[in-house]
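Section 5: illustrative case.
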């Protein structure tokens, strides 16, 4: 009786194991078979319990029979498991094979924005004279942006048409000059600083943006003359535009006296006249002048003892001229096809 049961059982087990081996998830199936036969309520486990209930005379033979079948099923199950594991390992090695001789994908590396590059180029030239870069807040008070710079209450640049106000007293700075005031309040002369950064005005077309960039410079020392200003800015024109011919035209700024605008000879036509310089042969590059003594009074400098000169350069315009960019808005569209050209 038990002999027949065991024969049937071992045949069944062999079939199940073969079936399992053919499956994709062979290892999982084999584990199920193991539980089915040798688990706590497995078929062999139950049989062994039955053997314990037999009479003392029948027990040894039945016990040995069950143990034989148990060992045989265990052995084929074990070899099936090893086989399935090997197969799994091999297929993994095959699918995860890596051809190290294939060419790699080069990562896309970003680059500095053309305006940042130009700002750094300009700063580097003035650094050779000992100017160091200082930055300040873009949201300013009326006092720092206007009052301290000698720009009276009725000055047209204070108009809502030109200045972006946040509240009565707070505004988006219209120039980086307030940074110079903040530095002069804390540092005694001599002083050589450059203040680059974003500034804001109500303006938007192909050559104006409501947000644009400036670099302003300030030098304060004893015995500073307009000759020093001309020397430093002429050097800058030669280094940056490779153009040695410059001219100064009288101008007006509330915070400098005298004030001037510096032009360089057009570096495209070299003075002959072209579309870029509107046939004039000259390009406007920057505004400058000797610091008005009343500005020194606002920051507690002795205006009898110290003089200084200041200048302001818009960054977008020289960048457009140097890089041949026709529309200022291209700088702020963040189109990677545009930006990639300046890597
Ligand atoms: Zn020209």
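Designed sequence:
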């Amino acid at each position: 009786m038990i002999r027949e049961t065991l024969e049937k059982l071992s045949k069944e087990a062999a079939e199940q194991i073969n079936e399992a081996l053919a499956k994709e998830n062979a290892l999982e199936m084999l584990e199920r078979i193991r539980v089915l036969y040798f688990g706590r309520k497995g078929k062999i486990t139950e049989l062994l319990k039955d053997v314990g209930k037999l009479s003392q005379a029948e027990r040894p033979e039945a016990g040995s029979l069950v143990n034989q079948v148990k060992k045989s099923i265990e052995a084929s199950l074990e070899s099936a498991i090893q086989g399935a594991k090997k197969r799994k390992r091999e297929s993994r090695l095959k699918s995860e094979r890596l051809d190290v001789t294939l060419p790699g994908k080069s990562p896309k590396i970003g680059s500095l924005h053309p305006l940042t590059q130009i700002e750094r180029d300009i700063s580097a030239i003035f650094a050779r004279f000992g100017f160091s870069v200082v930055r300040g807040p873009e949201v300013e008070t009326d006092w720092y942006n206007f009052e301290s710079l000698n720009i009276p209450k009725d000055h047209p640049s204070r108009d809502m048409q030109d200045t972006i106000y946040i509240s009565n007293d707070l505004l988006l700075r219209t120039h980086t000059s307030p940074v110079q005031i903040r530095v002069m309040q804390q540092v005694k002369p001599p002083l050589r600083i450059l203040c680059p950064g974003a500034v804001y005005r109500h303006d938007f077309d192909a050559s104006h943006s409501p947000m644009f960039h400036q670099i302003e410079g300030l030098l304060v020392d004893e015995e500073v003359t307009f000759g020093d200003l001309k020397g430093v800015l002429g050097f800058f024109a030669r280094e940056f535009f490779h153009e040695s011919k410059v001219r100064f035209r009288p101008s007006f700024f509330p915070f400098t006296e005298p004030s001037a605008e510096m032009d360089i000879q057009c570096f495209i036509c070299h003075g002959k006249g072209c579309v870029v310089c509107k046939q004039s042969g000259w390009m406007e590059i920057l505004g400058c002048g000797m610091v008005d003594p009343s500005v020194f009074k606002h920051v507690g400098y002795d205006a009898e003892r110290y003089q200084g000169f200041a200048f302001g350069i818009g960054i977008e315009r020289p960048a457009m001229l140097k890089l041949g960019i026709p529309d200022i808005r291209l700088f702020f569209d963040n189109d990677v096809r545009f930006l990639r050209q300046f890597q």
